[in-house]
Amino acid sequence: MIILGINAYHADSSAAILKDGVLIAASEEERFTRVKHWAGFPEKAIQFCLDELGITLDQVDHIAIGRDPKAKLDKKMLYLLKNPQGGVKTVLNRLSNNKKVASLEQEFSRMSGVDADKIKPKIHQVEHHRSHLASAFFASPFDEAALLSIDGSGDFTTTMIGRGKGNKIEVIDSVDFPVSVGTFYTSFTQFLGFPHYGDEYKVMGLAPYGEPKYVDKLRDVIKFTDNGLFDWNPKYFKSAKDVVVTYGDDHIPVVGTLFTSYMEEQFGPARKKEDELTQYHKDIAASVQRFTEELIFHIVNHLQKRTGLKNLCVAGGVAQNSVANGKILANSGFEELYIPSAGHDAGISMGAAYYVYNQTLDMPRAKPIYSAYTGSKFSNEQIEEFLKSRNISYKRLADAELYDYVSDKLVNAGVIGWFQGRAEFGPRALGGRSILADPRRTDAKDLLNAKIKRRESFRPFAPSILKEYVPEYFERTENVPFMEKVFPIKKEKYKEIPAVTHVDGTGRLQSVDKEVSPRYYGLIDAFRQKTGVPILLNTSFNENEPIVNTPAEALDCFLRTRMDMLVLENCVVER
Questions:
Q1: Where are the beta strands (DSSP E) in 98-238?
Q2: What confidence tens digit (pLDDT) does each residue in 374-398 have?
Q3: pTM of the entire predicted model
């Protein structure tokens, strides 16, 4: 049985494909369009998924759309009645987008030549947050778990809690639009002078430079409720007459200003993008991050008491807050936590497909997913043919020689573009499409920003560590396959790995498993044998663009930056 899942006409559009419950391929459309957070119909990602199975669209049994325009229709209408002036623009905008979702069979027909009438019966609409829950639970190792989906909004819901058992998900409760943790965090992201869609991670990176002095003041913005959820003070947020997210003909999501003048009255004037980042701004960032963590702990602790379960699965945009994720188990009654590699909206395609397979069709669960490598792949022969066509000099090395050669370059201050195997599904580079450096260097961060990244100095770089060495370097020991959690680094290790130790003594680690990532493991282990350090500094292979997807994109990034070496599978290009 073949199920195609998509996230369409929504930020981070994507496609994923299952065969008999096994995830075969998944990718964001932005990897092909080269436009960050691209939000149209994911035609190229769909075609990629079909090609990976060697099939055509008419051979797909079911198509799962991670969006259900009919979800909470009664609450949408009630909201419109309560907000007759302010709500019309928002509802009309959403209905316009819903029409695109409702007529997807026409898009499938256009790209495939298959009659739309044959496609329509195969389509299943799966609510946004149910798709998120499914992406986490059905991919997890747990037979039973409490579930949390938390983000900006989707299908008129902003937070959903539930329970998963076997191949079924039960929704327990939810928070309705517009009240939203995601909107709260984005509002303060904008307030701090970071205006673009997806800039929230900058606030998370800035927070350790401040003190959480204003947490109590934020209690007037968001209110914790006795049912384990939350409400907010609408005075701080613009009404629905200002559309929250719009998608133009270029399919780029644009977020209007979310906060009101009342927020500026209470917290001072908003920072403009070009303004200096003052200590006050850093303290606000620290306070917003700390308050968000407290809110998440409030939700999960109530959820744990309500379900009595020990396992937790989390997804949604707020689930990309790796600092909060790293603290959940220490601040709740849960003992195990699973977060998928694509916890953000791209993961909806995978989640919708699993929801249809397990929940709707009542099929048994497949094995848990610990690998994010579901994207594009190129053979050495394809790479050599490409390099020759561009007249690029290279050498091809066998694996053992490759690890030795590249690790030597890393030891000698080299910055490496590492392009191996399948691309990762999700926002994190995990050794498939990574830029690597020596974590022992005190100047590595400045070196990377000068040579390639040109990003804000307060943003940290991450450590990829061999799985069995995590207890030696970190205060907490958990499996972190997708770089989805931040943990404190042991104090005695700060000086050993300064390049990946953030200002607050933490690191957003990836625990590298030999079975999951054999080639990446081999390189890190070669570095360990030479230095005694089982860690590499890892950042995404890109330069202000989506992560590179092809050898051509990798080479272009290498040529326009000051990277020292490019490794495409077994082919090495040097300056």
A1: 123-125, 144-154, 157-165, 168-176, 222-224, 230-232
A2: 999 999 999 999 999 999 999 999 9
A3: 0.95
Buried b / exposed e across 1-17, counting CB within 10 Å, b at 16+? ebbbbbbbbbbbbbbbb
Q: Which pair of structure tokens corresponds to residue 248?
A: 């133009």
Token couple for 561? 């930056």
**Phi and psi at residue 410, to the nearest 5°:** -65, -45
Mapped onto helix, strand or coil, the DSSP state of residue 530 is helix
Tokens describing residue 300: 């999960």
Chain center to CA of 75: 29
Which residue carries 């994109």 as its tokens? 553
Most confident range (mean pLDDT) of 77-91, 276-290, 434-448 is 276-290
Contact 425, 372 (CB under 8 A): yes
Type of residue at 304? Q
Q: According to DSSP H, which parts of 329-379 are helical? A: 348-354
CA angle 321, 298, 426 (to 5 degrees): 20
| Residue 259: per-residue pLDDT | 96
Transcribe 37-60 into DSSP letters: T--S--HHHHHHHHHHHT--GGG-
Whole-number Å distance between alpha carbons of 364 and 357: 8
Rounded Cα distance between 536 and 526, Å, is: 11
Which of 430, 448, 414, 413 is CA-nearest to residue 561? 448
Which pLDDT tens digit goes with each residue over 527-557?
A: 999 999 999 999 999 998 999 999 999 999 9
Summarised one tens digit per residue, pLDDT across range 119-160 is 999 999 999 999 999 999 999 999 999 999 999 999 999 999
Q: CB-based contacts of 494: which residues, under 8 Å, 6+ apart?
A: 501, 505
How large is the C-alpha radius of gyration of the chain?
23
Cα separation, 491 vs 506, in Å, equals 10
Q: Could you say which DSSP state residue 547 is in?
A: P
Q: Which two tokens stand for residue 420?
A: 């191996």
Domains of the chain: 2-140+346-360 (3.30.420.40), 147-340 (3.30.420.40), 380-574 (3.90.870.20)
Answer yes or no: are the C-beta atoms of 525 and 466 closer than 8 Å. yes
